[in-house]
Amino acid sequence: MKILTANQLREADAISIKKEAITSYALMERAAKSALHWIVTHYPLSTPFVVICGTGNNGGDGLVLSQLLQEKGFVTLTYIVDHGGQPSPDFLKAKSQANPTLLVKNQKEISDIHLPDSGVCIDALLGFGTNRPTSGLLKTAIQFINQSKLAVVSLDLPSGLVPEFYPQLPKEGIITATHTLTFQFPKLSFYLPENGEKAGKIHILDIGLDADFCRACKTPYNVMTLTLAKSLLKPLDRFTHKGNQGHLAIVAGKKGSIGAALLAGKGAIHSGVGKLTYFVPECGIPFIQTHFWEAMVAPNCGDEHLQHLPQENYPTYAIGPGIGTHEETQACLKTFLSTTNSPMVIDADALNILSLHSDWLKLIPKQSILTPHPKEFERLVGPTATFEERLEKLQYLAKTYALIIVLKGAHSVIAVPEGDFYFNTTGNPGMATAGSGDVLTGILGSLLAQGYTSKEAALLGVFLHGAAGDLATVEYNPRILSASMLPDYLQQAFNQLEQ
């Protein structure tokens, strides 16, 4: 799914209004009805609602929604925070048709807003028209809402959050939403680490904007959705065999870090690879053969760290978990990159070695998948002050060397050589644990070995990895998740895609 800019969304509104020969107020009503539909499917009629509106179009959305809630039988209180400026025409029309509302005109009157001990506050103060930090009455109203005990449902965008980049935005001037009901398309700021957590759970509501215009809109930013993941998953051939399911070679481990190799293998085996071969130092072989009866192990790679790799070629490699940065291992990696032509997955210590030898980046086979976490990425490209700058460097690296790069995080970003970004939507804080990335390396290598393109493997693999983590939290508190638990939930993750 695309992420459009605020300007593109305004243009989509205007074109939809023109082509459908409707008023902008009719579009406002459409947005409010879509929000109502979501609300009635998530909250019982006994839930009290407080709707707090600004004086722009977002406030108009709130007023129309308030009217609809009352017509449905919900007990609803509605407030207008008159924060100055010219009210929008559609807001004024909504106000003229709304049930009686209470007007808040100054900061002293904020305390007159009655918030019950339980229920839901609808945030309709600002929407996506914000382009600067909040102040004055608006900021006071936002802080008042944030201090309440109510669940907060923001319309389109949490008030105070800008739709795109604005890294220095003060957090105290932004609504902390429980849910954000965003219209038609997600907003970029939902997925940025500076303030993205303010959006809570994101729900994308269709309001029928012109499909032709939306399809034609150009944007480098996209969201990885369940629908896209389902479209990528290939059906299993009834007559397939292990040779068709791919052969992955995992190059991993050193003395003291064999666990990383085991985790990568578990990720690979549980995501469908046909055959698995390990390149590990001699000290790791007993652990591999004890844990994975399915795997083969190539001998003579070194005693306690990787010193050399066998000369025979394998179709697909995943290299890096736990290999360390010993000088002999560095030399081994250089030789390996220089003599291997097929795309591979490169992670962990292999990335750390590359950061010591930036000229080796040109040796990486095109369409390989790199999976750095933020620190590993900065070792490769240098420090970044903002996430916007990080994305610029990410795009440069992907384009320059024709690589697929997975920048891991709360919303892992997949950058492709064409210049596009895909923000993942699965995963949770419980996955912020040692070894989680090693499991991902195994999953990506497995999919690559099975014949998925590098882009397909990255998108699908990252989604499945996060989905497995989410499914694990159905059974376990995220605080106790460990990396070794994740592969056990890949079965359920695949089941979700096949439903």
Which features does this protein show?
14% strand, alpha/beta, 16 helices, 2 domains, Rossmann fold, elongated, UDP-N-acetylmuramoyl-L-alanine:D-glutamate ligase, seven-stranded parallel sheet, 499 residues
The global form is: elongated
Contiguous runs where pLDDT drops below 50 for at least 5 residues: none
Span of the ends, CA to CA: 20 Å
Q: Major sheet: order of its strands?
A: 8-17-16-15-14-13-12-9-10-11
The DSSP helix count reads: 16
CATH topology of the largest domain: UDP-N-acetylmuramoyl-L-alanine:D-glutamate ligase
Major beta-sheet overview? 10 strands, mixed
| Beta-strand residue percentage | 5-15%
Structural class: alpha/beta
Q: Helical percent range?
A: 25-40%
The CATH architecture assignment of the largest domain turns out to be 3-Layer(aba) Sandwich
Count of discrete domains: 2
| CATH H level, superfamily name of the largest domain | Ribokinase
- Indicate the radius of gyration in whole angstroms: 26 Å
Query: How many strands appear in the DSSP assignment?
Result: 17
Mean residue pLDDT: 95
CATH class of the largest domain: Alpha Beta
Oligomer: single chain
Task: Tell me about this structure.
- The chain is built from 16 helices and 17 strands.
- It has 499 residues and is of the alpha/beta class.
- It has two domains: 214 residues, YjeF N-terminal domain (Rossmann fold, 3-Layer(aba) Sandwich); 270 residues, Ribokinase (UDP-N-acetylmuramoyl-L-alanine:D-glutamate ligase).
- A ten-stranded mixed β-sheet has the order 8-17-16-15-14-13-12-9-10-11. The chain has a seven-stranded parallel β-sheet with strand order 3-2-1-4-5-6-7, with helices on both faces.
- Helix 3 packs parallel to helix 4, helix 11 runs parallel beside helix 12 and helix 14 crosses helix 15.
- The protein is elongated and about 80 Å long.
